[in-house]
Amino acid sequence: MATQLETTGALERKLAMAVPVAEINRQVVERLRKLSRNVKMPGFRPGKVPMKMIERSYGPQVHAEVLGDAVSKAFSAAVDEHQLRVAGQPRIESREGAAEHELGFTAVFEVYPEIALGDPAALGFERVSCPVGDADVDKTIEILRRQRVTWTPAGRAARDGDRITIDFAGTIEGVAFQGGSAADFAFVLGEGRMLPDFEAGVRGADAGATKTFPVAFPAEYGSVELAGRTAQFEVSVKQVEAAQLPRIDEAFARELGVADGELARMRADIRANLEREVAQRVRARNKAATMEAIAGLANFELPRALVDAESGALGERALEDLRQRGMDPKNLPPIPPDTFREQAERRVRLGLIVAEIVRAHGLQARPDQIRRQIEEFARAYENPAEVVRYYFSDRNRLAEVEAIVVEQNVVDWVASKAQVTDSELAFDQLMSAA
């Protein structure tokens, strides 16, 4: 069946096509006959309902289904005929002017752009590394000790690092304010959980003491009612407790999962976990730097349909994030339509460039690469073999791993061609980076 393709924009195309009326009618009759075998209607046994009643009840729905299938099939055939790469969903409308025995339609859609990749040798970016040293293991052990701290009465005035339990009540110009009072409130002095003036007011206090002092709220404070104002707080110190850290001994090692309590094995396990975490963060940081550079490899017009879809997906993720935080999006101002457009355009552009690099240079994920990536994931778990089976038992999970491997193939390929500056990042700097 003849089709006509028209170029209506840089990426927009308009396709004229038609489907035969006789074939539509034939398929409608055939489907209604099949339907009649099982249709139930009051007063009739299944399979005995008159065809006219079936046509009256189900004819419009069946006709719409058959016509939709025929148009979809005709569009797919036309796309193959004209060797098109369609981006997004087509907008299909009926049209006048078709032959008497046909129903005419037009499909308006976008195609993927032709991408001419630039020379990766012109790209430049920084690639970081981060060694794990004995001092980093020591710091981690101290963090693990602080996570297992116990508290005992200090028997002295409060100082930084102590846990203080207090009752407090705040007023501004003699009037109490929301959130300004609490009972049996505990916090660790010096951690910055409370405002500086508040911590200064209780620092040096003994259990049983009562103190009154001013607290200045910063101008950028989250509450508009309190920002930039000064409150008076009356505080009763009920308890001052000192931190007791566990000793680094066999019991501590066993608590961290080292069955025999061997301290050397504990340190080796901690180092291995740190190296695994560092490797993941370094890989993510270097991938982000590479992708930022890749974005400059080609310049082309983006299909609006893909950008709109990506923008919508980003908006849905933002709404879901609000729901996860306990907020109802219905009670918040609507998100402006273009909020995520710039981010969506960048993601679509980068995705198309990466796909073209993969296609042009054969960087698809190999089975052995996928298995190695899964085995690397599995090493972080107690039963690696079970994790490997978990991934290989589901096509969707395998597809996620495949996408990770393909991205890493692209990163490695670009790094082998571009001007890369290697630098070493301090452990603390890497681990504290957002």
Describe this structure in words.
This protein is of the alpha+beta class and 434 residues long. The protein folds into 3 domains: 4-111, 2-Layer Sandwich (Alpha-Beta Plaits), CATH 3.30.70; 128-132 and 261-432, Orthogonal Bundle (Trigger factor, domain 2); 149-244, Chitinase A, domain 3, CATH 3.10.50. It is 45% helix and 22% strand. The chain is built from 12 helices and 11 strands. It has helices spanning 21-36, 51-81, 134-146, 196-202, 250-255, 263-294, 304-324, 341-361, 367-378, 384-392, 395-417, 427-432, and strands at 4-7, 12-20, 86-95, 102-111, 124-129, 150-153, 163-172, 175-188, 210-216, 230-244, 419-424. The strands form 3 sheets. Strands 6, 7, 8, 9 and 10 form a 5-stranded antiparallel beta sheet that branches. It has a 4-stranded antiparallel beta sheet with strand order 1-2-4-3. Strand 1 and strand 2 form a beta hairpin. Helix 1 crosses helix 2 (51-81) and helix 9 (367-378) crosses helix 11. The chain starts with a strand and ends with a helix.
List the helices and strands and how they pair.
Layout lengths: L3 E4 L4 E9 H16 L14 H31 L4 E10 L6 E10 L12 E6 L4 H13 L3 E4 L9 E10 L2 E14 L7 H7 L7 E7 L13 E15 L5 H6 L7 H32 L9 H21 L16 H21 L5 H12 L5 H9 L2 H23 L1 E6 L2 H6 L2
Parallel strand pairs: 5-11
Antiparallel strand pairs: 1-2, 2-4, 3-4, 6-10, 7-8, 7-10, 9-10
Helix pairs in contact: 1-2, 3-6, 6-11, 7-8, 9-10, 9-11
For the structure shown, list the relevant keywords.
single chain; 434 residues; alpha+beta; Alpha-Beta Plaits; Trigger factor, domain 2; Chitinase A, domain 3; five-stranded antiparallel β-sheet; four-stranded antiparallel β-sheet; 11 strands; elongated
